[in-house]
Amino acid sequence: MKKFTINSINRISFLLLLFVAGALFSCEEEDPTAPAEAKAAPVIEAVRSMDPTKADSTFKQSTLGSIIVIKGRNLEDTRFITFNGYNASFNTAYASENYVIVRIPELTPTVATATNVSNKLVVSNSKGEAVYDFTVLPPAPIIEAMSNEAAKAGDVLTLYGKYFYFVKDVTFPGGVKATNVTASADGTTLTVTVPAGVTPAQGSVIVTSESGKSAANARTQLYSTLGLISNFDNKSFFGWGIPGENIVTSAPGINGLDGKFGTVQMAVPGNGGWANARVMHFADYGAGSQILPTTPAANYNANDPIANFEVRMEVAAANTNLNGIQVQVMIPAADGKEYDAKVDLKNFVRSTDGKWYTVAVPLANLANGSTKYSKYSDALASKQIRVAAFNTNAADVPVTLGFDNIRIINTTK
């Protein structure tokens, strides 16, 4: 029998220590979070919702931010998931042989942000990848403004906003569906023909797309006479300014919306120069009553912030260069000091062919120097309002403009 000496035992112990140390070093070099070697490439069979009530339904599209369940095979060792080439983070704890849960990243490219998207969902592991046809939808539509809130049945109305993609229908107040719906390629405008049977006071215009429905707001409501100060017909507190013959049913290149309207037809003085013929002043001098709206009280509370309100009107332009031309709203204070606000007409009136557009002037901008109104009561104290064409150019500019439906709207209602 072979005998082991102390020295030989020490040498064996040393070799064992080296082996153990080497093994430990190798373990430390490995990434403990790395997925195990996959047994086979992944396979995607379907995509379904995390909603238990929809667990049996599958789909091939979903919106940004949605959490989805990918169903298939060999998914437990998933290393990467991409939507339209954009990498999605996911928790490997939620990956099993047949399922993996993932949230579609908010920054995933869609038709709203990229001219070309692959519409592909890709799941990969160490053995390969699975590619699945899947459309990531942009957010639900957003309506920021309508071209003409006084549009009637048969008129073409343009909606301005974002995410007008994959539009299914447009619903008008009263539940009536629009016809001839056409969205721009960039999803920022949508044209529709106003259907018959619309009841403006009963709600908002709503756009429904594959991504969902647009939200109702103060800019999605058709004109319903709410807050009306003057329509130049059956309600008009016109006092002075434009000549009486400038309250007409038609003007060169402009046809009325519904009955009469006021016009500014002149060379508007440059540098904001004054001319009565560019101004429409509204006041009830005879009775001295309040012409600014006060009812319904929920919409016109005197203590509400002035920032809640804006003056709206429909404006048309014919054969007019609108560069530097503004709409000016003036509501003098009780002490007679002028408070005014202005907006550039070309930001609202998008053509000069006589078509009518809705213009909005925020009352939050009413100012006299650096002093501004704070509450609606500040405006009510005036009991008068002026609407005028204003020319910021140095030279006089000839204009033909129509104004109708002067009103104040509470934008928070």
From TrEMBL:
Pfam families assigned to the protein according to its UniProt record, in alphabetical order: SGBP_B_XBD (PF18329)
Region forming the signal peptide: 1-26
All copies of domain Surface glycan-binding protein B xyloglucan binding, residue ranges: 226-409
Alphabetical UniProt keywords: Signal
Entry protein name: Surface glycan-binding protein B xyloglucan binding domain-containing protein
SUPFAM superfamilies reported in the protein's UniProt record: E set domains
An annotated Gene Ontology molecular function: polysaccharide binding
